[in-house]
């Protein structure tokens, strides 16, 4: 069965001014990376064979496949609540979608049907697309990857990430996967806590060394030993 969907065309593809603004933000973000940097992310894993009850957000949610209009609503560069960092995160995710990222899911606030959260789900069949990004691992046939989540600013602090991520991870079974992995910077404690609430625990470390504003990268993915105490960390 073909589980892929057509690429979602965002509004920026039809609006040159918006596309130019996205490019400007991404160039500025590249320059901020500097000439050299070293970073470590936790790779967290959820075993779908293990019983788990998804947590509940503080608002009622629907989780479904995202449309282009959903992405435009959540990834809104012109939201006045956006910080400078939000604008960078949004610009990168819009570029990710425009490059052909597929199988995006959205969480919708059922009180007024407002899209509020997006997350992409990949499996090994997506390897040709994922190979564009050296900071992402190669997936085994039983593995899925959750990548590039984003919550609209006004919806933060409502527990949306934990519920939506838990429910989206369960969709990996529909594409033949038994384990789902995701990556979070080791300093991002809030997101690490959200991942654990969604049923994920530390599984590996991703080490990245980058040069020349991130244009040159060296990446390594190191599984944690079975007895490594970081496997049972509570964030």
Query: Which CATH architecture?
Result: 3-Layer(aba) Sandwich
What is the H/E string?
Answer: HEEHHEEHEHEHEE
* CATH C-level class: Alpha Beta
- Residue windows where pLDDT falls under 50 for at least 5 positions: 1-5
Q: Tell me the number of helical segments per DSSP (H or I, 4 or more residues long).
A: 6
Distance between the termini: 39 Å
Shape: globular
CATH homologous superfamily designation? Gcn5-related N-acetyltransferase (GNAT)
Instruction: Please give the largest β-sheet.
Output: 8 strands, mixed
* Order of adjacent strands in the largest pleated sheet: 2-3-4-5-6-1-7-8
Strand content: 25-35%
- Indicate the CATH topology: Aminopeptidase
Give a written overview of the molecule:
The protein is of the alpha+beta class. It has one domain (11-232): Aminopeptidase. It is 27% helix and 29% strand. The chain is built from six helices and eight strands. It has an eight-stranded mixed beta sheet, with helices on both faces.
Fold topology:
Layout: H1 16-33, E1 36-47, E2 61-65, H2 68-74, H3 84-98, E3 104-109, E4 114-123, H4 127-130, E5 143-151, H5 160-170, E6 179-185, H6 189-197, E7 201-211, E8 216-223
Parallel strand pairs: 5-6
Antiparallel strand pairs: 1-6, 1-7, 2-3, 3-4, 4-5, 7-8
Helix pairs in contact: 1-3, 5-6
């Amino acid at each position: 069965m073909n589980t892929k969907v057509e690429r979602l065309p965002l509004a920026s593809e039809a609006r040159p001014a918006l596309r130019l603004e996205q490019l400007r933000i991404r160039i500025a973000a590249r320059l901020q990376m500097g000439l050299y940097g070293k970073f470590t992310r936790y790779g967290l894993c959820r075993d779908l064979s293990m019983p788990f009850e998804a947590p509940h957000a503080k608002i009622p949610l629907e989780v479904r496949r995202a449309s282009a209009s959903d992405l435009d609503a959540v990834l809104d560069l012109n939201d006045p609540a956006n910080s400078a960092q939000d604008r960078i995160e949004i610009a990168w995710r819009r570029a990710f979608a425009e490059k052909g990222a597929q199988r995006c899911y959205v969480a919708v606030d059922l009180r007024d049907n407002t899209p509020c959260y997006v997350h992409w789900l990949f499996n090994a069949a997506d390897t040709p697309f994922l190979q564009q990004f050296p900071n992402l691992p190669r997936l085994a046939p039983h593995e899925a990857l959750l990548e590039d989540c984003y919550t609209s600013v006004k919806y933060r602090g409502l527990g949306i990430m934990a519920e939506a991520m838990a429910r989206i991870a369960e969709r990996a079974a529909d594409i033949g996967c038994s384990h789902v992995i995701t990556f979070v910077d080791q300093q991002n404690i809030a997101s690490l806590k959200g991942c654990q609430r969604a049923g994920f625990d530390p599984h590996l470390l991703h080490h990245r060394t980058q040069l020349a504003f991130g244009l040159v990268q060296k990446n390594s993915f190191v599984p944690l030993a079975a007895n490594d105490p970081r496997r049972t960390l509570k964030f």
